[in-house]
Design goal:
It is a single chain. With 277 residues, this protein is an alpha/beta fold. Strands 1-4-7-10-13 form a five-stranded parallel sheet. A five-stranded parallel sheet has the order 3-6-9-12-14. It has a four-stranded parallel sheet with strand order 2-5-8-11, with no helix packed on it.
């Protein structure tokens, strides 16, 4: 038993020697839920009684964020709370534009409340707007933890540093990946399974533009992949489903993949070549 305790103590010392003031994921999740709930009553655990009550909750949420972030950012808590508070109005305004874009683009969506409360695409975008704001005030790690919370809840993986324009619409959400240096213009619409990624994952390329630029009003359909920092999809283009794109296309392009389909009448039996894996 003494040997076991000594081994445990050795492991504990090894772990603690790292000395990083890392925030507990559950604390980041709590702050994230507080902030999202303040910005969107449809996602709040408890509704605010009135404007004064909501203002108080926003102040508390910003202070809670600051207490989590301060050890990592090496900044006074008061400064971090003030910086986040200054960004929340734009986060809210841009997220509402996103919700309106989803409502306008999805025939199945009936109300703005439904989009905000129930659409994983909206949650993913709103979480990105918040994480991007936290990234912008220089807080490390916390934005990535917020992004991972949204990823686990929506199936959408957006790096906090990605730049996304106004009225962004994600339809069906699941499986979307948007890399760190991606730049997305205004009124862009993505369907499920889209990847905006890098051609190379070499560590030597860190800090360079590795991910594509998507122009205004582009639509990218399901399971399309667009790769490379030099790849630009021009404004008003449509990228079809399952396209694999690694070069730029001019504005107004239609990019699609052709497939060979064979249809024959069912005759009571199937040939071996009907099932090829």
């Amino acid at each position: 038993m003494t040997e076991t305790r000594a081994d445990s103590a050795a492991v504990a010392r090894q772990v603690l020697e790292q000395g990083h003031p890392f925030p507990l994921k559950r604390n980041v999740a709590r702050v994230f839920d507080e902030l999202i709930g303040c910005l969107f009553p449809q996602l709040a655990t408890l509704p605010a009684r009135d404007a004064e009550d909501l203002a108080g909750r926003i102040d508390v949420a910003c202070r809670d964020f600051a207490s989590v972030a301060a050890p990592l950012a090496d900044e006074p808590e008061e400064d971090l709370a003030r910086a986040l508070l200054a960004s929340l109005s734009e986060v809210h305004a841009r997220s509402l534009l996103d919700a309106q874009a989803i409502l306008a683009g999805d025939p199945a969506a009936e109300t703005l409340d439904e989009v905000i409360a129930a659409y994983p695409g909206f949650l993913a975008i709103a979480a990105h707007r918040l994480a991007h704001a936290v990234h912008g005030i220089g807080v490390p790690i916390v934005p990535r933890l917020m992004a991972e919370l949204a990823h686990s809840r929506s199936g959408v993986d957006i790096h906090p540093a990605a730049t996304i324009g106004r009225s962004f619409c994600i339809d069906h959400a699941t499986g979307i990946v948007i890399g760190e240096t991606t730049v997305i213009g205004d009124e862009v619409k993505l369907y499920q399974g889209v990847t905006l990624g890098a051609l190379s994952v070499s560590k030597d390329n860190a800090g360079t533009k590795r991910h594509p630029t998507i122009g205004d009003r582009v639509v990218i359909y399901a399971n399309a992949t667009v790769l490379g920092g030099d790849t630009t999809v021009g404004a008003d283009s449509v990228i079809g489903g399952n396209v694999f794109l690694t070069r730029s296309v001019p504005p107004g392009s239609l990019v699609y993949q052709t497939a060979d389909h064979r249809v024959r009448p069912h005759q009571g039996r199937f040939d071996d070549f009907d099932f090829v894996i």
